[in-house]
Amino acid sequence: MLLRRPLKVIGLVGLVVPSLASAQAAPRGKGRSSTAVPSGASAGAASASSASDTAAVHAVVHAYAASLVGAPPNPDRTASLYARDGEMLPPGGPAVVGPDSVRALLAGFSKFVVEAAEMIPQSTTVMGSHAISWGDYTQRAVPPGQPAVNVGGRYVMELVKQADGRWLVRRLLVQPR
Asked: Cβ-count burial of 63 within 10 angstroms (0-12 exposed, 13-18 middle, 19+ buried)?
C-alpha cells in the first residue's frame, strides 16, 4: 500500500508544501539550453533567434516565480503568464486549465504569505514556437497560523510563443522533493 504525506497546495500554483514537514532547498546551478533547428533553416539564423527566444523563455520562468511572492500572492500576475489553454498540473490533483481557473485556484490562498520563490532553469530547448524548460524551484511560504516552510523540487514548463512574440505557459508540472 502506498502511503503519502498530506500535502497542501499553496500560492505557487503547482508547487506543493508538505503540511507536516519541510523539504530542503534545491541546489543551485547554471542553466543549459539547446535548440532544435527547423529543417531548411540555417544553424546560424536559428542560433541567433533561439538565443533570444531562450532568454525570453527564462524571463517567463523567472517572472512566474516572482509572481508568486506576496502577502498574499497576487493570482492575477500568475494567471497572466498562462496561455488561453495553459494547464497547471499539480501533483496528485486534476489539471487546472486556463488563466481564469488558475486565478480562481490561487485566489483561495489569500491567507498565505510567500516570502520567496525561485525557479532555476537547468535545461531549456526551443523548437520554433514551442519551448521546454526543466529546472529546480525553491519557495519559502507561511501557511496561515503556522511557521514558515521551505520547499523545493523540480519543474518542467512547456511554453508557446504567441503571434505577438510573447512566450506563455502551456503546461507546468512540478515534483516536490
From this structure: middle
